[in-house]
Amino acid sequence: xxxxxxxxxxxxxxxxxxxxxxxxxxxxxxxxxxxxxxxxxxxxxxxxxxxxxxxxxxxxxxxxxxxxxxxxxxxxxxxxxxxxxxxxxxxxxxxxxxxxxxxxxxxxxxxxxxxxxxxxxxxxxxxxxxxxxxxxxxxxxxxxxxxxxxxxxxxxxxxxxxxxxxxxxxxxxxxxxxxxxxxxxxxxxxxxxxxxxxxxxxxxxxxxxxxxxxxxxxxxxxxxxxxxxxxxxxxxxxxxxxxxxxxxxxxxxxxxxxxxxxxxxxxxxxxxxxxxxxxxxxxxxxxxxxxxxxxxxxxxxxxxxxxxxxxxxxxxxxxxxxxxxxxxxxxxxxxxxxxxxxxxxxxxxxxxxxxxxxxxxxxxxxxxxxxxxxxxxxxxxxxxxxxxxxxxxxxxxxxxxxxxxxxxxxxxxxxxxxxxxxxxxxxxxxxxxxxxxxxxxxxxxxxxxxxxxxxxxxxxxxxxxxxxxxxxxxxxxxxxxxxxxxxxxxxxxxxxxxxxxxxxxxxxxxxxxxxxxxxxxxxxxxxxxxxxxxxxx
Length: 537
Ligand code: AMP
Prior knowledge:
By secondary structure, the chain is of the alpha/beta class.
């Protein structure tokens, strides 16, 4: 028989991050890049006051516990205020990706039954189109006042300035605090509803030195949008740590991002490879460096090893991370272990290009097609990647059926695991290439292609083949001003992979189709080049 513990049982609530932050780091700064190169800056103490005022404003306007509050907004201090004012009072902050197709945005708002929508003026025309079709939204509230339109409800009107503090309500830690929809490349988007408990545990785990490792000494710039899985939890982990926060706002040009990084002393930043590429292209083209940036967290799609090398030459170390909307998002982060220190540079790079080792609180296995029986963790065998843990969804928002198989969530990725827990994604299961009965990892082929000096971006896709079933084809976006030949590009594979893994041909494109969260849309490429093969994607 077990003996009950005798410790205080306080619910894990997002409001506790806020109160901890203001008590212990009141003078820490939150800086936001505004249009026209201007900046907004204030302290945690001032942030706190405004969060209280917004919380009261939401209450005054009749928004009740459990209601969904939508946002169509960039990474700004106001968006951050909404995160904390909603969660703190038991509301659900529903961040919406404004880059999705309008029909998907409409579907998402109606599915979530949002009652308020806070939006940046950049999305005004989108909002005008949404308004007649989203009846659940009773209040459309403009976040910034940079518009000539009058008679709009504005954010500052929602701040009840008669308050400076409040007794944050205590409630069940399993209550929802955030909602984020998957991008829905296959069928309708589905909602992942995060709880206070899952959010806090995820924030704790991500602060571990072997994970993202945010500390009070950091200045954190989330390049990843706050509508893409809560900016990977940085609004919580950075504030929990007392870090300076640097919010990039709407200007995602290389120039603006590099300048913010330098002028605000950013030490840690996180984003998908495509946004890092934008910042790196600008940095290199202008012979610039990073004087304070130490750590680049890169995930959302495979980080090309060439990017790790480039950043390392700029004295920035990469933490490659794997995650997904359904996993809050962090599952693994990649770092070298002490035993890797004696390896050659190339061997270390190979380790760093893996998706990494599990955070404590997330557990992984790979399986065969039954999605149940574990396959060997020998670093070679690949299988369906399954995950379970404290911040992994059990069911999608509004659905009664479980999203799990035998207690595990099927990620849809194909990966290997090794004896030290390193996970390496070889493909999204929809994108695997099977040639002559053997698997070819499209990510491995793409990673090598991006080492070619003239290749900006590469996608390896399956072409139907009467003899082999499928053969790999490399789709390439060239770097501006270069004109490599097919032969020249393919020569990079000599002695790197088995002959039969080398793509049969190279197709050059002017643009790569990307999803609203910056992932390559290989289904679009397959549709474009091999239409008859495409089925239900
Ligand atoms: P999302 O829910 O939109 O964030 O997409 C999650 C999916 O992105 C995962 O299931 C992977 O297919 C992909 N992904 C995320 N991080 C990585 C990574 N580091 N390497 C390869 N694929 C990744």
